[in-house]
Amino acid sequence: MESSNLTELLQCHLAIELFDYDIAIDWSHNLMAIGIESENILILASFSKPVDPFEIRPYVTAALADLHLSEFTGTRAKLRKARYHLKEIINEHSVRNQLKQLADLCVKTEYKYGLITFYLLYHGWNELDDIGVNLYYKGATISNIDQIVKKEANDWVKQFDELQENMPTTSDAHKQGYQH
Predict the structure, then answer these.
(1) What is the value of pTM for the model shown?
(2) Cis peptide, bond prior to residue 58, ω within 30 of zero
(3) For the segment 25-50, what is each residue's pLDDT rounded down to a tens digit?
(4) Is 17 exposed, middle or buried (0-12, 13-18, 19+ CB in 10 A)?
């Protein structure tokens, strides 16, 4: 799993309900493997899975601060979480699970930000499996839905930067130092 993709997801950890902090351990190991270390990164690497979210959370925040990275909240965090799942789809990592996460996120963002496509694809794919027909996404069949999902993921990721520019700014100071 790409370190920069994990970094971006970890920047959203405070805004994501039931965040899986086990990935913070993988992230810290990835950083150490490329020569990026701090006391907090070393502490994260010392945790064993499964981790207690309340115990590890402050170290994630501190490690991000060590790298001069902001933590994202609100809509910014949700969109970055969406981009994480879309990149996972593009890289063919647990595509159906990523699609489920996006469908849930679509509901949480009140069907905004172009996530409705993934909601429809998720339910359409389930329909194809269950009854052999899809009434959610026109033209998607069992033989082409995976390709459609990847194409839509690529299209959304390409438009993400434009979407970010059109959002109201918050106190999210931008990345200094560590580049991903």
Answers:
(1) 0.78
(2) no
(3) 999 999 999 999 999 999 999 999 99
(4) exposed
- pLDDT tens digits, one per residue of 61-106: 999 999 999 999 988 898 999 999 999 999 999 999 999 999 999 9
C-alpha–C-alpha distance, residues 55 and 167, integer Å: 33
Q: Is the predicted pLDDT of residue 57 greater than 80, yes or no? A: yes
Contacts of 99 (CB under 8 A, 6+ apart): 85, 89, 118, 121, 122, 125, 149
Q: Read off the amino acid at residue 27.
A: W
Checking if the pLDDT of 16 tops 80, the result is yes
The answer to whether residues 59 and 43 touch, using CB atoms and an 8 Å cutoff, is yes
6, two tokens? 């994990």
Could you state, in order of their start, the residue ranges of all structural domains in the chain?
Answer: 3-66, 75-165
Q: What's the half-sphere exposure (Cβ side, CA atoms, 13 Å) at 8?
A: 19
